[in-house]
Amino acid sequence: MPLLEVLDLKVHFPVQPGVFRPAQAWVKAVDGVSFSIAPGETLGLVGESGCGKTTLGRAIVRLTAPTSGSVLFDGEDIAKLSGAAWRARRRKVQMIFQDPYGSLNPRTTIEEAIGEALDIHRLAADRAARRARVAELLKSVGLDPAYAQRYPHEFSGGQRQRIGIARALAVEPELIVCDEPVSALDVSVQAQIINLLQDLQQQHGLAYLFIAHDLAVVEHISRRVMVMYLGRVVELADAPGLIRTPKHPYTQALISAVPTVDSQTKRQRIVLPGDVPSPIQPPLGCPFHPRCPVADARRCRNEVPALRELAPGHWTACHLAG
Ligand code: SF4
Description:
Blueprint: E1 4-15, E2 25-37, E3 42-46, H1 53-60, E4 68-73, E5 76-77, H2 83-90, E6 93-96, H3 110-120, H4 127-140, H5 157-169, E7 175-179, H6 187-204, E8 207-211, H7 215-221, E9 224-229, E10 232-238, H8 239-244, H9 249-256, H10 299-302, E11 308-311, E12 314-316
Parallel strand pairs: 3-8, 3-9, 6-7, 7-8
Antiparallel strand pairs: 1-2, 1-4, 4-5, 9-10, 10-12, 11-12
Bound molecules: iron/sulfur cluster.
C-alpha cells in the first residue's frame, strides 16, 4: 500500500473582481493532481515557477486547504481529519522550506525551536530528556550540539537548512515534503544537504516529496519524477526513463536546458516561446498548446489530454506522445 496517495486534488484560490475583471475568478493553482509515494521512496517534483508545485506540497501538509480531492496517508484521508485525530497524524508528515530562516523565530534559541516540536507532541519526558534529544538531533544533521543555545542569525544558510531538517526529524515523521530545500544554497552546500537527506532517508526509512526547479538535482535524489505545468501533472516516470526518453514536449524542453558534461549526450536546446499563461484563464484544450512546438491545431486547442500510461510506469498527458 502506498504511504501517500493524492487523488484528484484541487486547490483553487478566489480572485476578487476588479476594474479589468468584473466577475469573480479563480486561480487554479493545483487542478486535479493524482499520484502516490511508497514508504521510503523519493518522488521528485519539477516545473517552472508558478506551476503549482509549492501549493501542492503545502496542501499535503495542510498549510493550504484543498478545494477538493483526497490526501490519503496510510489509507486515511488527512485532508478531512480534525482535532485529536489530526494532531496524532500531523507529526508523520513534515515539511522543510527553501528559506528555513523565515520559519525560525529570530528571538528563540535553536534548542527552543527544535524543543517546541517535542513539547507539542509530548515526545520528551522532562527538560533533561528534551535537551538530550535536541543534542542528538543536532548531531544527526552534522551540527555541534553546543550550537543549541545560539540564535538563527548566527548560522549560515546551509546550517539553517540543517536546523530545519533537525526540527522536522524531531517528531519522527514518515514523509517529508522538501520544498526547494537547496535552491538558495551554494552548489557545494547543495551537495552536502542532498547527501544528508539521502543518509537520513536510509537511517529512518523516510519518504520524500522533493520539490525543485533544477532537474539535475531532482534526477540525482529521486526514484521517480513528476513534471507539473499550470497546476496539472504532464509527465510521471522513473527518473532514468524520464531523463533519457521524455515523452511530453514540455519535459523535453526542460531536459534540453540541463547542462551536460558528456559530449555523447549533448542535447539540442529547445527554447519555448512566450511565458507560462495565467492560471486564472488557462488556455482551452491542452494548457501547453500556445507554447508547444508540435501542437496539433485542431485537437490540442480543443481537447484536454488525459494522463496515459505509454510504457510501464511512464505516464504522459499529451495527445501526440507515443
Ligand atoms: Fe503539445 Fe498537443 Fe501534446 Fe499538448 S497535447 S503537449 S499541445 S502536442
